[in-house]
Structures are given as structure tokens and as C-alpha cells.
Amino acid sequence: MATREFRFQGVTPQGEPVRGTVMASSKTKAREKVDDLSEEHGFKPAELEKRRTYLYKVRHPNGEVQKGEQKAYSEDEVRQALDNMGLEVIRVQKKWFDFQFSPPQSDLIMFVRLAANLLRENLPFDEVLELLVNDVSSKSLRQVIRDIHSDLKSGTDAEKAFNKHRDKLGKFTAYMLGIASKSGNMAEIYESTAQFLERKDEFKSRVRSSMIMPAVTTIGMIGAMIWYVWYIVPATAGLFEGMSMDVTMPPLTRWSLAFSHWLDRNWVWLLIGTVGPILAFIAWARTSQGKFYIHKYMVKIPVIGKLLHKINIEIFCRVFAILYTGAGDNLRVLRIAAEACGNKYMEYRIRNVTIPMMTAQGASLDRALKASGVFTSMAITRFKSGAETGSVQQSAQQLANYYQKETELSLDAAVQSIQTGVSIIIAIGVLFLTILSAEMAFIQPSQADMMGMGGG
Questions:
Q1: One domain for residues 59 and 130
Q2: Is residue 214 part of a domain?
Q3: What is the pLDDT confidence band of residue 247, given thresholds at 50, 70 and 90?
Q4: Domain presence at residue 38
Q5: Are residues 258 and 326 in the same domain?
Q6: How many other C-beta atoms lie within 10 A of the C-beta of residue 413?
Q7: Of 79, 128, 402, 421, which residue is 20 to 30 A from 284 by alpha carbon distance?
């Protein structure tokens, strides 16, 4: 669910006003956060306002009429801001259907890549945002850039400004771009982020394109078999069922007819029993608990399980290597890398085993990572040697590069294995239909049955 920004107001016991903002997916969750803050800091919450989108229509001093939209906590805020700009306000109204869609990944990658290139040309960051906001095709991303630009101009901390939009930018991207403004190597961090996003998008595209054809072929073959057994077989071999006992049905034909009749009686229940569990599984898989258990046991999936696990480790190592020098706080680096790896179980083990061991027990990085139970022995060995030689960042980068090359090769092998499996399924299906057709061609009714059919 998309996160929204809420502004709260309150009063301290001394009568001093308190104001702040929280990010939450709903007003109820925002109120819970404000209640926690009020207990922690000792103030009484009074008002909670949701930041909305308002549509406005204004007239410039030269007579030109212009329409636009602006995010604010109230209509009065929008009117006041437009008045301060010397514009005549014609109309301001709330945007009723204020849906927030995530921008396409391609637009996000282009934004980060172009920003990295412009920053290497030593352009000020506010000019970079002003240039890119007009070149982005995604409306939602344009609004995100405008909001970030507005927050930065008003003095908002860069990390906070970007993290407001982590549901659209992604946790890793929002964090990286947020800390880039505080670092001395802003262009380098943007470049690293762009490379990471490009790599991740390329892998997803390759997996998607390599899986579409096998999936379509398999579904088509199964559909053809069901249609043949359910429609063709009764229309041909079914003609002989009412004849005398002299007609002997071959075994495969007899079983196919029986299955066809069973489908006639139970196809509704079969449809419910098939589609229902699939939809229930998809709904469960979208929950936090579902993702956790799927990610925990995905390594056991034939062919692609270990491949997906190594990709998670690759992403973790790449993010860790990027942030190790820029973030400074190693524990914070571990948390961000765990979130970015894309595996909820792996993230859970790092946050609840690795990090506590390093803080409470003073365990070394390699020992704490090993205790999590989610890293390969090779990864543990590389981190251990990196810690001993003082080259943890280089070891993480080397490990990421190694797994990148290995997963690329493994992906090709996995695709070939899947295609081989699909070919076997098709061969079995064709063989089944061939034998079934041959059986029906050799059904020999008696002469009396044939004369009975003619007389009827």
C-alpha cells in the first residue's frame, strides 16, 4: 500500500505548540505513530492532516490562464502560496481521485542515469532536478521529482525528502539518493545506483522473456489435450458406446471417454478446485507472511532455487560494497543491504541474528553472517579474508561480480533445462494424442451394429 504524508499538531504541558510529519499507509496508522511520539516526547496531539493533491486555475499578470496541481495539507495553503507568487487564483479544489501509481522501472532508471551524467558535468543538483522533471514521461515520477525539489528548497533534509517516496522509488534507491546529497561523491553514488538498477532490470527482463514461451507452450498443450479428450473423443468414439457388446473399446479410448463423462459432470467443481487454490495462493503470497515463507523455501525449487538464492547474495554484496564507505555506520549498511537483497527471510535473519550478534556479542562480520544461515560458504570465506586483510569492501565487490557472472551462465543453463522439460511435456502430449487417435481409428463395430446405425 502506498505511503502518505500526514502533518500533526499538538501542545506540550507548558503550552508550547508542536508540529511534525509522519509517513503512513493510512490515517489510522499515522495516528498510531503520532500517539507513540506523544508518549515519547510528552505532548498532547490535537490535529492530524493528510497531504493531498489540489487542482488549481490561476491568471498570470500578463493575462495568461494556467492550470496545475499542487500537494498541500489544505486548500488555504495552496491559495496562500499562489497569492505569494503574484497570481490571481481563479479556482482551487481537491483532486478526488488521487491515485498514486509507482513509476515504470525504465523511467526511474533513466532518471537516475541522466542525473548521474549531469552531476559528472558539475551541474548543481537543483538544476539537475529542474532539467529532468521535463524529460520524464511518467506523471507519477514527475510529481515525485517536484516534491523532492520543493522539499529541498524549503530546507528539508535530503534523506528525509527522498525517503518520503520510498514506495515509488524503492527502499534502496530512496536511501542511496538521499545519502548522496550528504556525501562528497554524489555523482559516484548516483552512478552506482544506476548500474545496480540497470543490472536488476536486465535480469528480470531476461527471466521474464525466457519464461513466457515455455509457459504459453505448456498451457497450450494441456488445453489442446483437454479439448481433444473432452470434445473430439466423445464426438467420435462416443458413437460406439451405445452399440452391442461386440464393440471393444481400446483401453486408452475407454479411459478417455470415462474422463470426458467425468468432466461433463464435475467441470464446475474442477474449475473451482483449480482456480480457487491458485487465487488463494497468490493472495497469500502477496502478504508479508507469504513472502517470508516463499523466500525461505525458494532455495528448494528445482533448477532455479539456488540461482535465485545466489542472486539475492549478489545484490546484498553489491549494495554492501556501494554503501560501505559512503554510509560510515556498518550496522546501518547491513540493514540497508538486507532490505535491498529482495529476500524477506534473508533480511529477517540478518536483522535478527547477524546485527544483534555484532552489537551484543561483538562478533566479527564473517562469524555473524555465518550464524544467519543464509550465506554460502564461499561468501563467508570471502568476507572473512576481507576482514583479515582490511579489504571488506573490495571482497564484497569481487563476490558480487563473481555471482553476477555465475548467475548469468546459470540462467542460460536453467532456461535450457526448462525448455528441455517443456519439450518433453510436448512430446508426451503428442504421443498421447497420436496413440488415442490411432486407437479410435481401429475401432471395429459389428455388421449388425453398422446396419442398425444405417436403419436408424
A1: no
A2: no
A3: low
A4: yes
A5: yes
A6: 11
A7: 421
Distances (CA, A) of 254 to 203, 429, 439: 48, 18, 10
Q: Is 221 among the domain residues?
A: no
The answer to whether the pTM exceeds 0.70 is no
Neighbours of 402 (CB within 10 A): 16
Integer Cα distance of 172 and 341 in angstroms: 9
Q: Are residues 150 and 294 in the same domain?
A: no
Question: For residue 73, is pLDDT > 70?
Answer: yes
On whether residue 272 sits in a domain, the answer given is: yes
Compute the distance between CA of residue 338 and CA of residue 350 in angstroms, rounded to an integer: 7
Are residues 34 and 64 both part of a single domain?
no
For residue 93, give its domain range.
Answer: 54-99
Residues 331 and 445 in one domain: yes
Residue the block writes with cell 543490472: 199
Q: Both 360 and 330 in a single domain?
A: yes
Written as nine digits, the cell of 171 is 527502499
Per residue in 167-223, pLDDT tens?
888 877 888 888 887 766 788 888 888 887 887 788 778 777 777 877 888 888 888
